[in-house]
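To: structure desk
From: M.T.
Subject: fold request, one chain
Message: Could you run this one when you get a chance? Sequence is below, nothing fancy, just the single chain.
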Amino acid sequence: MQFQQLAYFVAVADARHFTRAAEAVHVSQPSLSQQIKALEKELGAALFSRARGNITLTDAGAALLPLARRILADADTARHEVLELAQLRRGRVRLGATPSLATGLLPDVLRTFHDRHPGIRLIIEEGGSHDLVRHLARGALDLALVVLPLPSPSPALTTVELFQEDLVVVSSAGDEAPASPLRIADLEGRPMVMFRHGYDLRDLTLAACRAAGFEPYLTVEGGEMDAVLGFVRAGLGIGVVPRMVATRAGHDLRVTPLARPGLRRTVALAHRSDVAPPRAARVLQNVLLTAATGLRS
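Reply: Done. Structure tokens follow.
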């Protein structure tokens, strides 16, 4: 079994078409078909069903696809690791982060890292913790900043708690100032702007409101972090966001703390347990750990 054969197999699985797959990997269609047949012969099973021109995965193909993606991702990571020079003059780091952490934590951290290692290319993937864990598991990320507890804990991942952070209520500076601090119960009946499904902050806020005995009144829902802050600025409702994000949001938003025990989230750094992160990723990990030291409370 060769890496090239696996790459051709993944290309056909993605395109569901041999000619388009051949174009995507820059080989002739007969060459690609020949390599797929050789792979099927070696494995002793058909990988694709070719019925009336429709290309679908067989059971064997469906079982192989996630493994092939992971093998190819690991090979790509190994290639970049070998290419890195001793002084970290070049290379890459693929870092996943929830949108709120990308907005609140990463700008200063990445600035510090880039100043020290300007040749390292930083590739940032934003998403919810659930999606980031999935990307880590299949080798598409080196590190990920996630919120604990994870939706689906995995023994294949190692997580290191970085810090805990308070959530606060933000409102338009033009609205009447709410009482300070606010209790969760005080949010009942107030117009609220809510994040899209899949956001850790959405799940945390809704759970807190329901635990207090009410369903929040949502005027707008489905936005990303920047959109939610913009909706709040426009006076469409309040929002519940991390303090770090609120601090960076500007003077046109009013920040009100929540009364104790309030709401807190636990931020952690995750990576695969079975493969050590590339060298450049380990250096970024140390920068993140140093930054987190000053955020622990």
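Reply (cont.): Residues 125 and 138 are 14 Å apart (CA to CA). Let me know if you need anything else for the meeting.
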